[in-house]
Design goal:
Layout: E1 4-5, E2 15-21, E3 26-31, E4 36-41, E5 46-51, E6 56-61, E7 67-71, E8 74-78, E9 85-89, E10 98-105, E11 111-117, E12 134-139, E13 145-152, E14 155-161, E15 166-171, E16 176-182, E17 189-196, E18 203-209, E19 215-220, E20 224-228, E21 234-239, E22 245-251, E23 257-262, E24 277-280
Antiparallel strand pairs: 1-24, 2-3, 3-4, 4-5, 6-7, 7-8, 8-9, 10-11, 11-12, 12-13, 14-15, 15-16, 16-17, 18-19, 19-20, 20-21, 22-23, 23-24
Length: 293
């Protein structure tokens, strides 16, 4: 695969959480540390950005309109027309010192959020994560919050395999991608087990699932994507022209374009670090879902 920058001059500090909205044909992603939400229309190349004033873990479209954004202070609805936000749910007290780091929507429209110790300093620099104080939450369309798991170090990867009844969830601090049995009707998860353990090519960051049920995982610090088969075996490793790919999503016509967000924090920094990258995928992907609220 040949990864190219979608926009030559654009660079994020910590690009993350890409979401392809099939209804509008737009890519939504965030720049985490500055707290910026971005939306790209690939046809025109137009990018719209919203500065939210605090660190952000994700932004996803909502069926009722607007975007749901996961901020340090809670979950909010962002009105794209005005840039204003309105709080609608709180995951955990801000006094815990955590922040959301990953959030995606399951195939039924429920929002899932993984938290971690807040590692963003006042100068936007990284603060070492020394404790596994994060958790995994499920948020219903009406804003009801359910806590599913705890002891999370650095929450990353939230992907569902609807065919196999699975939820994949990663922890970058341990280097492990876990898999749960996921019940579509209730949203309940159970039987957590290791899907893929640590690998020399970086630590697991965000992921996407393709139409064959294979998991594509961005490897922070490893400069690559790893494609895992449904049994957790490594199918292929795709080298990338950046050191810190952060997450990926399938989009575009037929879901044949793989978009990859990247970061340019830390050392060394190369010319494409922080760029939004894209490549034609060898297989189509599975679609993203809007939050049902």
């Amino acid at each position: 695969m040949r990864f190219e920058p979608v926009m030559e001059a654009h660079r994020d500090l910590l690009g993350e959480a890409p979401h392809w909205d099939e209804q509008t044909g737009q890519l939504i992603w965030i720049d985490l540390n500055p707290g910026i939400v971005r939306s790209l229309d690939p046809q025109s190349g137009k990018v719209i950005s919203w500065q939210l004033g605090e660190s952000i873990g994700s932004a996803v479209p909502r069926e009722a309109g607007g975007l749901v954004v996961a901020l340090v202070s809670g979950l909010y609805v962002l009105d794209p027309a005005t840039g204003r936000t309105e709080k609608f749910a709180e995951l955990e007290p801000i006094t815990l010192g955590n922040r959301p780091n990953e959030a995606r929507v399951d195939p039924t429209g429920r929002l899932w959020v993984g938290t971690m110790r807040n590692d963003v300093g006042l100068d936007l620099g990284e603060v070492p994560v020394t404790r596994s104080s994060g958790a995994l939450y499920r948020v219903e369309a009406n804003g009801a919050v359910h806590r599913h798991d705890s002891g999370v170090g650095v929450a990353n990867t939230l992907v569902w395999d609807d065919t196999r009844g699975r939820l994949y969830f990663g922890d970058s601090l341990t280097g492990v991608i876990s898999v749960y049995d996921w019940d579509r009707a209730s949203g309940a998860i159970a039987n957590r087990r290791v899907f893929a353990g640590p690998h020399p090519r970086g630590v697991p960051d965000g992921s996407a699932l393709d139409a064959e049920g294979y998991l594509w995982n961005a490897r922070w610090g490893g400069g690559c994507l790893i494609r895992y088969d449904p049994d957790g075996g490594i199918d292929r490793i795709f080298d990338m022209p950046v050191n810190k790919p952060t997450s990926c999503v399938f989009g575009g016509p037929g879901l044949r374009t793989l978009y990859v967000t990247t970061a340019r924090i830390g050392e060394p920094v190369g010319g494409l670090d922080g760029a939004l990258l894209a490549a034609e995928a060898p297989v189509p992907g599975q679609p993203c879902t809007r939050f049902a609220g």
